[in-house]
TrEMBL record:
Keyword tRNA-binding: no
Residues in HTH gntR-type domain copies: 8-76
InterPro entries according to UniProt: Tscrpt_reg_HTH_GntR, WH-like_DNA-bd_sf, WH_DNA-bd_sf
Protein name (database record): GntR family transcriptional regulator
Domain of life: Bacteria
Keywords from the UniProt entry: DNA-binding, Transcription, Transcription regulation
């Protein structure tokens, strides 16, 4: 788990970290997520703050409570989360890219070429294949 920063409410940061783990498959569907006491100890926060992060994830339908057992990743949580993040990605990055490309009269082939160049550059920089 990554450490929290000062960029927002602590409960939201913890919820975001758990959501990231669900999105990347670190915590799979049906798997138990840490309890509020476990989260509180790990992040060194008040248990009520940790509980609020779990409530946030529950409200979003990403985790579900099993009485007497704990909180578990809900069925279909990863798919819903990835779909929502893809929509957000398109709205935040792709749409502005396409709008600016149109302003600059960059056609589809040229735009795709630019994206391919950036992907190749990212592969060299990170050592990963995009």
């Amino acid at each position: 788990m990554s450490l929290l920063d000062d960029g927002g409410p602590i409960f939201a940061q913890i919820a975001a970290e758990l959501a990231n783990q669900i999105a990347d498959g670190t915590v799979g569907e049906g798997e138990r997520v840490p309890s509020s006491n476990e989260l509180a100890a790990f992040y060194r926060v008040n248990p009520a703050t940790a509980a609020r992060s779990l409530t946030t994830l529950s409200d979003e339908g990403l985790v579900e409570k099993r009485r007497g057992v704990g909180m578990f990743v809900a069925k279909g949580a990863r798919d819903r989360l990835v779909r929502a993040r893809r929509r957000h990605f398109a709205d935040r990055y792709v749409r502005p890219l396409v709008v600016e490309a149109a302003r600059l009269e960059i056609g589809l082939d040229e735009l795709l070429g630019l994206v391919r160049e950036e992907l190749a550059s990212a592969e060299v920089t990170t050592g990963e294949r995009a």
